[in-house]
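Suppose you are handed a protein chain with no further information: no name, no annotation, nothing but its sequence. What can you learn? This example shows the usual starting point.
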Amino acid sequence: MYKGVIVSVKPNFAFASLDELEEDVYIAKEDMNHAIYKDHVLIKLGKKKDGKVVQVISRGLSSIVGEYKDGFLYPDDKNLNDKIYVAICRSITKDICV
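A reasonable first move is to predict its three-dimensional structure. Written in structure tokens, the prediction is:
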């Protein structure tokens, strides 16, 4: 297992920079495990030096700018390819959106 950071994201794949390797590692979209651009992740390497995100250690972004429409945020950053569902809370109890 290797620690790294997601450094580039395209619609169907991404690249991660790993602490112990010089070259970036390819990660297929289905192996991202909900990681997004700049996330600190734990990655398992495959036989072809491709990676699979095993765990998101911490989020790399504290805010995301974009257009809100019909319950979704469409990010302006081209490294964030997917729309993001935004829950509307009626009330918050013990940090839980209800």
